[in-house]
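>> received
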Amino acid sequence: MTATVTADAKPYDGTTTATLHCSLPSGVFSPDVVTCSATGAFASKNVATPQTVNITNITLGGAQAGNYSLSTTTGTTSANITALHITGSFTASNKPYDGTTSATVLTRSLTGVIGGDAVTLTGGTATYNDKTVANGKTVTLTGASLSGTDAGNYILDSVATTGRQRSTTRRWPTVRR
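>> returned
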C-alpha cells in the first residue's frame, strides 16, 4: 500500500517545520479503519517556491493497521515557503534651517523579524514634508531596502517615523559690527 503525503505552504518562520497531511487513496478494504501519519521537514528554512519537503516515518494507524503494510516509509513532496512581511521605522535628527527638505536618519529598526535573523533596514532618502521651520515636522524615508544574510526571507511593507517627529530650528543671521 502506498500513502500519499502532502505539505502545506507557509510564510517564512525561521524553521524547517512542515505541516503534513497523509492519506491512503486506495487499498483499504471496507469496513477496515486504517489511517496514516508522517513527519517531515523542509530542506531549508529559507524562502523558496517550490521547496523540497523530506518525508520520514510514514506509519499506519487505526484498528486494522496491523493487516496492512506500506511499500515505503519515506519520500519527498514540495511546498512553498513565502517571504514574511515586516515593517520598518526610523528616527531623524533635528537640524538648523538650511532651506532644504533633506533630513538625516538617526536610528532604524524593523518589526516582525524572526529572532536571530540577520536583517537590517538600509539606504533610502529622508526628507521633511516641507522646508519651513516648525516643531513636529513629518519626515519620510523613501527607497529604503533590506540587507543582511536573511534579507531574502522578508518583504518590507512600509517604513514609518517613530518616536517624536523632528523639528527644524531657525538659523539666526550673524551680525557683525
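>> The chain has two domains: 4-82, 84-169.
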